[in-house]
Design brief:
By secondary structure, this protein is α/β, with parallel strands linked by helices. The chain has two domains: 2-111, Alpha-Beta Plaits, CATH 3.30.70; 113-305, Vaccinia Virus protein VP39 (Rossmann fold, 3-Layer(aba) Sandwich). It has helices at 15-25, 38-42, 53-56, 75-89, 102-108, 154-166, 182-189, 202-214, 228-231, 245-251, 275-285; strands at residues 2-11, 30-33, 62-69, 93-101, 116-118, 122-126, 138-142, 172-176, 194-199, 221-225, 236-242, 259-271, 287-295, 298-305. Strands 10-9-8-11-12-14-13 form a seven-stranded mixed β-sheet, with helices on both faces. It has a four-stranded antiparallel β-sheet with strand order 2-3-1-4. A three-stranded mixed β-sheet has the order 5-6-7.
Length: 310
């Protein structure tokens, strides 16, 4: 059956805010065309000399968000919602729809996903690409499928960079909102002993399990579909959540119950305009910020229980 592609044209300066709103419509089947930082990003791509000249010539002032809606869902409701939300926040946009074959949309976004080097130790490589590895990095092979999480977005890159700093020594990790499994699998490849991922989307759990097999860590990770509090138990050395500010704020009420005595809470996906709200909630929960990282208007925080020594 045919799917519907919703193509949204926006000013590139509005990409982050507009993509956040798009993710409210459907948290899967989305990709973004944004060529603003193409030269900088090319430094992160393994095959730098293979970048298409046509991509380099694209208009840097505009970006496109592509959303794919399944045949069972009403695309016009999504279009109406997007139009209303974008108008409410002052984002100029042009929205068009087109019918596409399921196999066509499933492969179309892959040309925008190339190998990415993160931190000092890690590289993310899509399953259909080859990666030249002269530095001997730990390579995570991943097929995101329809689950969010390729490593290319600032929030995921931030969280992966933090995990590169803290993973190792056979630590245990809990990945809240695990998506494609990119964080939990990376943590295992970087030296953690075991991992648990939890996500409310059964499709994400399926994709994460497949990626665990792809990286030969399936015996050390478990993915659970459902709510954190209802489905997960135990204490972990690292609890990570790469979601959005509102959910992170909600998690603060329970996250300490899942942290080991010297455990860390790593939270990413916080847009800078919401950082103060997250910090206020962390403080009320008895969590202190150990380190802060920022990229492209997004913030990642590393927290521990109790006060930080002066």
């Amino acid at each position: 059956m045919d799917w519907t592609e919703i193509k949204i044209r926006i000013n590139s300066a509005d990409t982050e805010h507009a993509s956040d709103i798009a993710n409210m419509v459907v948290p899967y089947g989305i990709y973004i065309e944004d060529y603003t930082d193409l030269e900088e990003m090319s430094l992160e791509i393994a095959h730098i000399d293979l970048i298409d000249e046509e991509l380099k010539s694209r208009d840097r002032s505009v970006a496109y968000i592509h959303i794919y809606v399944s045949p069972e869902e009403n695309p016009f409701e999504a279009v109406a919602y997007l139009s209303e939300r974008y108008s409410a926040v002052g984002i100029d946009n042009q929205i068009e729809t087109v019918s596409v074959n399921e196999s066509e949309w499933a492969d179309n976004w892959k040309k925008y996903f190339k190998p990415i080097e993160i931190g000092n130790r890690l590289a993310i490589c899509p399953s259909w690409e080859q990666y030249d590895n002269p530095q001997g990095r730990v390579v995570l092979n991943i097929d995101p499928g329809a689950a969010f999480g390729t490593g290319a977005h600032d929030t995921t890159r931030l969280c992966l960079g933090v995990l590169d700093r803290y993973c190792g020594d056979n630590k245990t990790i809990l990945d809240v909102g695990s998506g494609s499994g990119i964080l939990s699998i990376s943590a295992l490849l970087l030296g953690c002993s075991t991992a648990v991922g939890v996500d409310i989307d059964p499709m994400a759990v399926k994709v994460a399990e497949e990626n665990a097999v792809l990286n030969n860590v399936q015996s050390r990770v478990e993915y659970v579909c459902g709510d954190l509090v209802e489905k997960i138990s135990g204490k972990y050395d690292i609890v990570c959540a790469n979601i959005v500010a509102d959910i992170i704020i909600s998690l603060c009420d329970n996250v300490c119950d899942f942290m080991a005595d010297n455990g860390l809470f790593i939270c990413s996906g916080i847009i800078d305009t919401r950082e103060a709200d997250v910090l206020e909630k962390l403080s009320k929960t008895g969590l202190s910020v150990v380190e802060r990282f920022e990229s492209g208007g997004w913030v990642a925080l590393v927290c521990k229980r109790g006060e930080i020594d002066a």
